[in-house]
Amino acid sequence: TYIGSLLVSVNPYQELDIYTVAQMQLYRGVNFFELPPHLYAIADNAYRVMCNEYNNHFILISGESGAGKTEASKKILQYYAVTCPTTEQLQTVRDRLLLSNPVLEAFGNAKTLRNDNSSRFGKYMDIQFDFKGAPVGGHILSYLIEKSRVVHQNHGERNFHIFYQLLEGGDKDLLCWLGLERNPQKYTYLIQ
């Protein structure tokens, strides 16, 4: 639902057929309250106001653990990737921003009691547009907010994914060079 220019959404914990290219086209260029509330309406409104006013705009995504903040940011990036003027540079910017997510998730996500892939970090994404509205650059600043998770986890939770992924998929030479063994049971940090 909308509350003024805010969107309140609930994570359904399942895939819904509301994030398609057809939905993106439906919300593109439409007046804010003309269609039912949607992330794409928020993304489109921020983009159009930025282009019309030649002013910086932002979308703040907030919520509890497991609310779907990371997914919402991915959906907004995908919306801009599909609906903004297409250039070769756009493809590069889009790919770098979207493809950086799995890397950030490996290093900053962990299993919690509420969510198997819970982000344990904050993220600020900045996309720069040219005067025509085409994305020309961007960067992501992230900060770890649960450093304590490295040395302690609550019962039923896990450390950051990267530790398990490194032991499971790391090349034998890399593990040897790092002084690691493949068996996660040998590490206090992973079996608490």
TrEMBL record:
**Coiled-coil segments, which residues?**
none
Q: Which UniProt keywords apply?
A: Actin-binding, ATP-binding, Motor protein, Myosin, Nucleotide-binding
- GO CC field: cytoplasm; microvillus; myosin complex; plasma membrane
Residues bound to ATP are 63-70
* GO-annotated biological processes: actin filament organization; actin filament-based movement; endocytosis
Q: Residue limits of the Myosin motor domain?
A: 1-192
SMART domains registered for this protein in UniProt: MYSc
Which InterPro entries did the record assign?
Answer: Kinesin_motor_dom_sf, Myosin_head_motor_dom-like, P-loop_NTPase
Matching Gene3D superfamilies, A to Z?
Kinesin motor domain (3.40.850.10)
One MF term in the entry's GO annotations: microfilament motor activity
Q: Which PANTHER family match?
A: MYOSIN (PTHR13140), UNCONVENTIONAL MYOSIN-IH (PTHR13140:SF353)
Q: Which family does the record claim for this protein?
A: Belongs to the TRAFAC class myosin-kinesin ATPase superfamily. Myosin family.
Q: What protein name is recorded for this chain?
A: MYO1H protein
Tell me the gene name. Answer: Myo1h_0
